[in-house]
Specification:
The chain is of the alpha+beta class and 265 residues long. The chain has helices at 2-42, 54-64, 87-92, 172-177, 214-226; strands at 96-101, 108-112, 135-137, 149-153, 180-185, 191-200, 242-248, 256-263. The relative contact order is 0.12.
C-alpha cells in the first residue's frame, strides 16, 4: 500500500514539474519572439527605404518569397505611404496593421488583422499555432479611414504577456497616471486618452463599429463613459474617434475587461 502511494505521489510530482517546465519554456519562447519583433519595429532598417506602399511589399514577396500569404484585402494597391518602422515587420507578416503601446505595462506589440476574429486567438505574429495568440484588430475595422470605434483584442495571459497588463487599470491611481496610450497604424502615429475602464459581460455590445447617425453614436459614448470604474472629465462628441481594448477578466463567467480611449491627435 505504501509503495503504491509512493509511486502515485512521485507521478504527481513529475507531472507538476513537467507542466512547470513547459510553462517556463513557453514563456521564454514568447519573450524571444516579442523581443525579435520589437527590434524590427524600433530599429528602423533603411536599406528598404524605397518601399512605400503595400503594393511594393507584394512585389517584394513575388521576388524573394519571404512573406506569408495575403488576403484579398492585403493585395489592394494602397496609395498611402507606409511608416518605415513597419517595413521589416510587413516582411514577417503582411497582416500587421499597427503597433500598440501602453505605458508602464508589457503591452508593446504589433497588431494584426485578418478576415475574421478567430485566427489570431491561437496563432502568433508569425501565424504559428500559439495559445498566447496575438493582439488583433476587429476584422470589421479599416485602418485607412479609422472607424468611429476601432477595437483591439488580446488574451489575458498568466505569464504576463498580451493584454495582461491592462489589468493595472483596475487600480484608480494607475488609471489616472497612465491615461495616454499609443496605437499607431501603418500610416499614422496616434495618441489616445483613456476615458473609461470597466468589467462587463458579453451581452453588452461594446464592440459596435457602425452607427446609424450621430445621435446613436453619442448615446453609445455616454453609455460607455458612464460604465467606467473611475470618473474622468474628458468631453466626448460625435466627431470623436475611439479605441477599444478588450480582454478576458475573471470576476464571473464570460467577463471582459474593457478600456476605451479617445483619439487626441
Amino acid at each position: 500500500m505504501k509503495k503504491r502511494l509512493y509511486i502515485f505521489i512521485t507521478i504527481i510530482i513529475i507531472f507538476i514539474i513537467i507542466v512547470f517546465l513547459v510553462r517556463i519554456l513557453d514563456t521564454l519562447r514568447t519573450s524571444r519572439l516579442n523581443n525579435s519583433i520589437k527590434e524590427k519595429y524600433y530599429i528602423t532598417n533603411n536599406k528598404d527605404k524605397d518601399i512605400k506602399t503595400l503594393s511594393d511589399i507584394n512585389n517584394l514577396e513575388q521576388k524573394n518569397k519571404i512573406l506569408t500569404p495575403a488576403t484579398d484585402e492585403d493585395l489592394e494597391d494602397n496609395k498611402n505611404d507606409i511608416n518605415e518602422k513597419f517595413i521589416e515587420l510587413l516582411k514577417t507578416n503582411k497582416e500587421i496593421v499597427g503597433w500598440i503601446n501602453v505605458p508602464n505595462t508589457k503591452v508593446d506589440y504589433p497588431v494584426v488583422k485578418t478576415s475574421n476574429n478567430d485566427f489570431y486567438l491561437n496563432h502568433n505574429i508569425l501565424r504559428e499555432k500559439d495559445s498566447s495568440g496575438a493582439i488583433f484588430m476587429d476584422f470589421r475595422n479599416n485602418i485607412e479611414i479609422m472607424d468611429k470605434n476601432t477595437i483591439l483584442y488580446g488574451h489575458n495571459m498568466k505569464n504576463g504577456s498580451m493584454f495582461k497588463g491592462l489589468m493595472n487599470y483596475k487600480d484608480e491611481d494607475f488609471f489616472k497616471e497612465n491615461k495616454i496610450i499609443s496605437f499607431s497604424t501603418l500610416y499614422e502615429d496616434i495618441k489616445w486618452e483613456i476615458f473609461s475602464a470597466y468589467v462587463t459581460d458579453t451581452d453588452f455590445y461594446y464592440i459596435q463599429v457602425n452607427f446609424k447617425n450621430s445621435y446613436e453614436y453619442e448615446s453609445f459614448l455616454n453609455t460607455i463613459k458612464g460604465k467606467s470604474m473611475f470618473y474622468t472629465s474628458i468631453d466626448l462628441n460625435s466627431n470623436d474617434k475611439i479605441l477599444t481594448l478588450s480582454t478576458c477578466s475573471y470576476e464571473f463567467d464570460d467577463a471582459r475587461f474593457v478600456i476605451h480611449a479617445k483619439r487626441v491627435n
